[in-house]
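Hi all, long-time lurker, first post. I run a small reading group and we've been trying to get comfortable going from sequence to structure in the token notation. Rather than ask abstract questions, I figured I'd post a concrete chain and ask someone more experienced to write out its structure so we can walk through it together at our next meeting. Sequence below, copied exactly:
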Amino acid sequence: MYRCPTCGGLLEVAHDIEALRDRSAAAWIRLFDERYRVTQWPYGSGVWGKREWVMPSLSDDLIVSMYEGGTNLFWADRYGKQLGVPETWVKLCGNSHSGSFKDLGMTVLVSVVRQAITQGLKVKAIACASTGDTSAALAAYGAAAGLPVVVLLPRGKISTAQLVQPLAHGALVLGLDTDFDGCMAIVQRLAEEGIVYLANSMNPLRIEGQKTVAVEIVQQFDWQVPDWVVLPSGNLGNAYALYSGFKLMKELGLIDRYPRLAVAQAENANPLYRAWSAGKKTVEPITAQQTLATAIQIGNPVSAPRALRALEELNGVVEQASEQELCNAAARADRTGMYTCPHTAVGLAVLEKLVDNGTIKSTDRVVCVSTANGLKFTEFKVAFHEGKVPGVDTNQSNPPVMLPADYGQVVDAITARL
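-- Answer (accepted) --
Happy to help. Here is the structure in token form:
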């Protein structure tokens, strides 16, 4: 079951808060700090180091972990100073096993499925619809657990690296002539008919792992809460996951306030932005148009009701970024030493817009969540620096200078640039 049989809403995992209150806030902080990135199984994982808040009944021998989490909270010093917000940080979730934040949720889901199989669950495979990163994470964790995986991808709409990852891990990869929403409709039907177990973020087990990024951000700030978290999002599960993590910390006394949340969407795939701007309480599906931020090219986000709740509780805002704006933001960030994926670039572009309009102040501490590793999107980088992104002015590109092996011309090229 993934939905309530009465109202059709998505299910949630409920924790016994009173039982968790048996340990004081100071004791939780001490425990989590003692476990952080240690070599003792399974606590080196950023997820399983907080297992009591995630899936406390799972035994060590059933956990499928790739040492996920524990990713760098990068102080974007030079970029932040150029932006006028010195306390700008980027949570590099792409520095994970499969190269994206999806690992955080998949370690929990695959571990629980592994336990369920030992208890008699009969299922042909674990399956997902994906715009790339979900399929890579599921295939990796499924392979580690020895479980069959099926992934449905929109044909021709993901990067080569994202396509190769599940192939390398032995998953059955089905490229369908549709978009993500079309793939999602089919995989949901497969799950309803009992052919596969569903691994998309409508499954609440994914949220349980992904919420640990909120805890980890606060932990990396010595248990201080940032003023803002900027999150690029398409299917919107991660917006609710962040809220879940902050909510649990506040309920147990580890923090006394929430950060504000900014959900960043690509202008070509912006159903949440449209609803939020119009003051609507529901998100109406759209047909997502092509965007360089392929992982968030989603027109019918399954977790939209959850995201609206998160925005309300975290006093949030929603903003969008055009293709030009995300390309420019990526170029500016990369010139300061980062290497941003196009989805992180959407987050940075929205951050820049919120600073420009005064929503985010120069004194705020801001964290932009980087959802994936830029190395998975080489085609995006190459096209930009070759000036081949359709409809985008690439005047910030930095193409190589091709010269004969002539000393004088090399000197001239250096002199011209420097």
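A couple of things your group might point at:
The CA atoms of residues 62 and 374 lie 32 Å apart.
The domain at 73-98+207-381 is CATH 3.40.50.1100 (Rossmann fold).
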